[in-house]
Give the backbone structure.
Amino acid sequence: MRTQVGIVGAGPAGLTLARLLENAGIETVVLEARSRDYCEARIRAGVLEQGTVDLLRDAGVGARMDVEGIVHHGISLQFDGERHRVPLSELTDGRSIVIYGQTEVVKDLFAARLESGLPLHFDTPAAEIDAERGIVRHAGGELECDFVAGCDGFHGVSRASVPSGVLREFGREYPYGWLGILADVAPSVDELVYAHHERGFALLSLRSPTRSRYYLQCRPDEDLGEWPHERIWQELQTRAGVDGWTLEEGPILEEGVTGMRSYVCEPMRCGRLFLAGDAAHIVPPTGAKGLNLAIHDVRLLAEALVRRYESGDEALLAAYSDACLRRVWRCEHFSWWMTTMLHLPPGGDPFDLRLQRSQLRYVTTSESQARALAENYVGLELV
Ligand code: FAD
Ligand code: DHB
């Protein structure tokens, strides 16, 4: 098999890249390790920056998102038992975020790809990539490509196929995890609430008018067996509770534990192989950046490939890694900052707790501080 651009991984990064290149008349083959059902059942991120929304709409895959996505103009930070609204839109010249699950984004992109009749091979894990020659090896044979996009997430083979010594890696593991639930009950909040509490962080989010998505800080290796549903609800009630507000409970449809890390590799390229999304970088989820960053990478990669095929000019391809990394590092900082401000440190160190509360008070009372948070949260092109 031969193609212009081989895409390894059908997550948001790989599928969006495939769509952007299809729209530009560039040939692609997408290889995905898992089944379609598996990918469509995976529950992950839920917050889309306006730039992500605009890109998906412009790419012709935003119709359902425009109907079902819920536009939010603010979020709240909660500490000392009180909620403080950060008016995102007021602070960012009208920018907003859209609540629409990553799962739905992926479903829309699958549907578009299949409708176009273009190659998307499920249950086809890439085993190895020859970055210099542009060859992707898999159980069924070899895919020869002009360029390969490594969009196979943090545990994929793309980054692992880069010869040692080429990439420089940066990272940090956090002693925190998130226990996330999807519940079949109307959300008890109109906007997201990030709650600081001395029993640990809690996040109130949603997926639709009838589905709530809630998270609790836990250990990264937390055993779900120790969390019967009554305990989950009780802990949410305690950590997220404020006077005069009730958290409605309902059947839990899905639950899981996610660990947290920050990670970046530089450069995001080796020969004909270009890394994008989680294959190149990971952020802890507190800033809601992972998915948005993946989409930003492939926007730049698509522009660079289009230029290359239109005019033979490889300047944008040469600039790809540096251009991505500027935004990656801004998001790394923001995500680390939100994470360390909101999560209970190990042992609940009273000094750290007071620093966190002071910072939260500052962020919610000083307009310049609130604006800094808002600009990062909505994903302004700052750098
Ligand atoms: P992925 O979505 O990981 O897609 C990679 C794809 O490549 C997958 O479909 C995988 O099956 C496939 N693949 C892997 N190996 C191979 C191979 N060898 N060959 C072919 N295909 C392969 N972000 C947030 O902002 N908020 C959240 O709440 C949040 N929750 C998360 C929960 C979990 C459990 C995880 C893992 C991530 C979460 N994230 C969250 C991060 C966000 O979901 C990611 O940043 C986003 O999925 C990145 O998209 P991607 O396309 O780069 O990678
Ligand atoms: C969601 C996930 C996040 O990581 C976040 O910061 C906000 C919301 C969510 O899944 O809804």
Remarks:
- Residues 8-14, 31-34, 39, 44-45, 102, 125-126, 151-153, 156-157, 258, 277-278, 285, 288-291, 294 surround flavin-adenine dinucleotide (ligand 1) (CB under 6 Å).
- The chain has a mean pLDDT of 97.
- The first strand starts at residue 2 and ends at 8.
